[in-house]
Amino acid sequence: MSAPTSSLTPPEGARPPVRHPDAPAPGELLGAHYDQCFGCGRDQAHGLHLETRAGEGVSVTAVFTVKAAHQGAPGLAHGGVLATALDETIGSLSWVLRTIAVTGRLETDYVLPVPVDTELHLDARVTAVHGRKIYGTATGRIGAPDGPVAVRANALFIEVKVDHFIENGRDTEIRAALEDPDQVRVARAFEVNP
Ligand SMILES: CCCCC/C=C\C/C=C\C/C=C\C/C=C\CCCC(=O)SCCNC(=O)CCNC(=O)[C@H](O)C(C)(C)COP(=O)(O)OP(=O)(O)OC[C@H]1O[C@@H](n2cnc3c(N)ncnc32)[C@H](O)[C@@H]1OP(=O)(O)O
Predict the structure, then answer these.
(1) Exposed (0-12), middle (13-18) or buried (19+): which is 6, by Cβ within 10 Å?
(2) Which of 31, 105, 147, 157 could tie 142 with a disulfide, CB 3.0–4.6 Å?
(3) What is the atom index within ligand 1 of the atom nearest the CA of 100?
């Protein structure tokens, strides 16, 4: 029987990721890509408020503090919320690639329960790129960057243009985003590729 293949395994011909020359410096705090984003948005009252920083190479780190609103079982984080934190962290690699991409597939391993009030320290990196397909991986650790591994994910992101959002988003929010100079500046920053 041949080895199992997965859409999360980079195909032959995939290449290593390239850090964009204008990527934020390692350690630099990445802003929100959208103020209403459930993962990183500053104005999203119900969100995770992830604080993400650029790393070395094509990597990022993030911190997510688990709140009572994120519970699934008493005193423990909901698995879907943890998947969101992993998804958002991998998605933030967009800032380092300067490429807009959306999640096509996300596979999550839950290793340890994560209590409320935990600071979950996440790190993510791009492992390979093949055409519009971007392969990423992320790990979440409890309490510190070298704490015990609680969650892991592998993901396939697909590169899209800003038009993806303009064509698919609800009119009200798209109009507001296009009228917000800060939002337009963020979107433009991702459109310029060498
Ligand atoms: C003006 C407002 C602007 C606002 C935004 C501004 C800036 C944003 C900037 C930066 C973003 C920064 C950070 C983001 C951080 C976190 C966000 C979290 C990420 C998310 O939470 S994001 C939401 C969830 N996400 C979706 O909402 C996607 C829904 N979906 C689709 O919109 C389509 O489905 C799409 C576009 C994915 C593909 O559609 P498509 O037509 O363009 O391309 P196609 O189907 O041809 O796929 C091309 C190749 O990918 C392979 N492929 C595709 N899907 C696959 C799958 N699932 N599994 C395995 N392989 C797959 C195909 O097999 C083919 O492979 P091959 O080339 O080898 O044949």
Answers:
(1) exposed
(2) 147
(3) 10
